[in-house]
Design a protein that fits this description.
By secondary structure, the chain is mainly β. It is about 0% helix and about 50% strand. The strands form three sheets. Strands 4-5-6-7 form a four-stranded antiparallel β-sheet, with no helix packed on it. Strands 8-9-10-11 form a four-stranded antiparallel β-sheet, with no helix packed on it. The protein is globular, with a radius of gyration of 14 Å. The relative contact order is 0.15.
Length: about 120
């Protein structure tokens, strides 16, 4: 599990079986949300800079980042793990991201201050 440390501009990873701190991610920005991708990589939204950062599964190794929109916040993954959805609060948009290539496929205008989201297939 992950705990965001807003004032500390970091994220703490906790081993859910032992309840011990496993690692700390020094981010340098206020984290909005963290989510584990289907392949185990960690995705963290950076509201301050409008992007999502990627970390290798089980490590603090930063793999890259992707600009999504001002106020990047919520993260959800499709059931098949191929698509991610990122809410951008300040921009009022939803970024639809291809997980494999880590590219924005489409951006939708959704309204004022979109926050969290849940993905459910019909």
């Amino acid at each position: 599990m992950y705990v965001d440390n807003e004032d500390g501009k970091s994220l703490t990873g906790i081993d859910a079986s032992t309840l011990d701190v496993a690692r700390t991610y020094p981010l340098g920005f206020t984290p909005a949300m963290a989510a584990t991708a289907p392949n185990g990589d960690l995705w963290v939204t950076d509201t301050d800079n409008g992007k999502v950062l990627f970390f290798a599964a089980g490590t603090t190794t930063r793999q890259g980042e992707l600009a999504t929109g001002a106020g990047a916040h919520g993260i959800a993954f499709s059931a098949d793990g191929a698509t991610s959805f990122i809410t951008n609060q300040t921009a009022g948009t939803l970024s639809i991201v291809d997980v494999a290539s880590r590219t924005v496929r489409k951006t939708l205008t959704v309204g004022t201050q979109p926050n969290g989201l849940v993905f459910r297939e019909n």
